[in-house]
Design the sequence.
């Protein structure tokens, strides 16, 4: 079977790429694109053989996109214009420009990709940018499904609610069935009297997670690592901007079926 040619936009530290590997579908990342130099160092450390373009997406022409000859796009555009704690500038935020460029380029490609997967924060679903995205993919003839999903819905102990969109060039519906919520230690603790809650919590000897532990919670594989020159603070920031690998892997499988 001929592998899918995957274009990874806003690659960050490679969460989408790791999810693609975990999904086990026949695929190859033909190019990754991101302007974040620190994130790119981590990406190159983990995927040294993947072509990485360290440039702005809006600086890539239609002809350059066509030359990549991809049939799947994985992307996680900047979330700052849509976060609840931010200014929610939406389309007026300059950080949305690269994504608007993608939406302008998409209908004009010589060959449309067969699959697209997009991840963003809760809040994107009520944005004007989302409306333009849906209008664009509908005009291109894509079948799509969008939803808000937390890893906890898949039985993963990581509460991280995110917007996802999966879309493909065919008419069949995209079924998605999530299992029930997992039980948490917090639920058990809150059933205790207040004094006992404090006692139980003190016994846990709580501390901050290390970057490696956070990567594990996000589903990154054991071999994932950071270059030595990346500081601990940078590790935390990069992981905070990443995604849950297991969730995306599940969605890629659904999209490909």
Sequence:
């Amino acid at each position: 079977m001929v592998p899918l040619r995957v274009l990874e936009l806003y690659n960050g530290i490679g969460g989408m790429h790791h999810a693609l590997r975990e999904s086990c579908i026949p695929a190859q990342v033909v190019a990754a694109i991101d302007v974040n130099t620190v994130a790119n160092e981590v990406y190159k450390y983990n995927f040294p053989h993947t072509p990485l373009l360290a440039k702005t997406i809006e600086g890539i022409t239609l002809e350059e996109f066509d030359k990549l000859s991809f049939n799947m796009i994985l992307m996680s555009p900047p979330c700052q214009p849509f976060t609840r704690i931010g200014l929610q500038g939406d389309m007026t935020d300059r950080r949305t420009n690269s994504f608007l460029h993608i939406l302008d380029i998409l209908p004009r490609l010589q060959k449309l990709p067969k699959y697209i997967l997009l991840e963003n924060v809760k809040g994107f679903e009520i944005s004007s940018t989302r409306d333009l995205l849906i209008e664009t993919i509908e005009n291109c003839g894509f079948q799509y499904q969008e939803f808000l999903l937390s890893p906890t819905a898949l039985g993963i102990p990581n509460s991280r609610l995110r917007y996802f969109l999966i879309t493909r060039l065919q008419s069949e519906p995209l079924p998605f069935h999530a299992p029930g919520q997992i039980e948490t230690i917090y639920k058990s603790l809150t059933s205790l009297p207040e004094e006992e809650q404090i006692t139980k919590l003190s016994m846990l000897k709580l501390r901050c997670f290390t970057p490696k532990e956070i990567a594990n919670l996000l589903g990154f594989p054991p071999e994932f690592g950071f270059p030595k020159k990346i500081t601990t603070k940078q590790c935390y920031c990069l992981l905070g901007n990443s995604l849950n690998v297991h969730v995306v892997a599940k969605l890629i499988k659904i999209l490909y079926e």
Summary: The CA atoms of residues 96 and 184 lie 37 Å apart. The mean pLDDT is 88.
